[in-house]
Amino acid sequence: MVHCLVTGGAGFIGAHLVEGLLRRGHRVLVLDNFATGSRANIQAVRAQLAADGVPCPLEVVEGSILDQGLLAHSMQGIEYVFHQAALPSVAFSLQEPLQSNRVNVEGTLCVLLAARDAGVKRLIYAGSSSAYGDNPELPKREELPSNPLSPYALGKLTGEYYCCLFSQLYGLETVVIRYFNVFGPRQDPESQYAAVIPKFIMACLLQEPLHIYGDGQQSRDFTYVDNIVHGNILAMVAPDAAGQIINVANGSRTSLLQLVAMLEGFTQRRARVEFFPSRPGDVKHSQADIGRAKALLGFEPLVDVEQGLRRTLAYYQQQGT
């Protein structure tokens, strides 16, 4: 058993990661200010583990990653840090670039300093595929030049640079995991940060219009959340991963119109699609090259897009929507 800290552990991805760590017998401390995370996510983790008879050595501390005193206290006895806390959403960052930068850049620096000072063994950072920007080359390899198109993307990329710098300057082992369009159960479709899949699912179930910005041909490497948890936990101990930037995704592409077609097939309902102009900062196509993840982490996707979409749809149906 090791002691892990998950910043942003009450968020959608963070809570799934917390559950994954607990299921593997680790102790977990969650640090979250609940600005975008949810206490319901933590409650759901506790309830699921109790139902499965799995011990739950979980502690939750409410607070901000910008609070250096709280961070220093929370890091005591911590061996591994999973830095998930962030202000997500390209759209929000375009409206509030200063706040986005404060949390995603300054907050990451605060976490790195606290981890360094506490002698943490390794920090795993939640990077973003938005760092690639609109580079047309597919699939996206980690060696490609970065071209962030929004304050959010720039902030996440700056966090990557800080992680690599801390490995070089201070000997703090860091691993950057670049996420690609993560989806799955417990993702809040009503949040201002909500991704396209929960919004599409809710619209289908409620027989409301599906909103597509652009022509619907834009494609993403939609990645079921279990794959992200799997990649993070592998990165915790992979000997050759320290100091690396690693894509974790399915390594495939699905267009928005293909998503709509799959949901129509699963629900046996015809979707009503409304098209709107493309939004600033949006990327046309994205697909990960996961060769480095396979080589350094031994990573293979556990759940493909269709399986993940079925599971996610079933979750929302069970919620009575």
What is the element layout, followed by pairings?
Blueprint: E1 3-7, H1 12-23, E2 27-32, H2 39-51, E3 58-62, H3 68-74, E4 80-83, H4 90-95, H5 97-118, E5 122-128, H6 151-170, E6 173-179, E7 182-183, H7 196-206, E8 210-213, E9 219-220, E10 223-224, H8 225-237, E11 245-248, E12 254-255, H9 256-267, E13 273-276, H10 291-297, H11 305-318
Parallel strand pairs: 1-2, 1-4, 2-3, 4-5, 5-6, 6-11, 7-10, 8-13
Antiparallel strand pairs: 9-12
Helix pairs in contact: 1-2, 1-8, 5-6, 7-9, 7-11
Describe the structure.
By secondary structure, the protein is α/β, with parallel strands linked by helices. The protein contains 11 helices and 13 strands. The strands form 4 sheets. It has a 7-stranded parallel sheet with strand order 3-2-1-4-5-6-11, with helices on both faces. Helix 1 (12-23) packs across helix 8 (225-237). The longest helix has 22 residues, at 97-118. The model has no long low-confidence stretch (mean pLDDT 95).
Describe the structure concisely for a colleague:
With 321 residues, this protein is of the alpha/beta class. It contains eleven helices and 13 strands.
Physical arrangement of strands within the biggest beta sheet: 3-2-1-4-5-6-11
Q: How would you state the average pLDDT, rounded?
A: 95
Task: Give the amount of beta strand, in percent.
Answer: 15-25%
Overall shape: it is globular
Reported for the largest beta sheet, the result is: 7 strands, parallel
Q: What structural category characterises the helix and strand content?
A: alpha/beta
What is the ordering of alpha helices and beta strands? EHEHEHEHHEHEEHEEEHEEHEHH
Query: What would you report as the Rg, rounded to the nearest angstrom?
Result: 19 Å
Relative helix content? 40-55%
Distance between the termini: 39 Å
User: Which ranges are low-confidence, i.e. pLDDT below 50, for 5 or more consecutive residues?
Assistant: none
Q: So how many helices?
A: 11
Compute the number of strand runs: 13
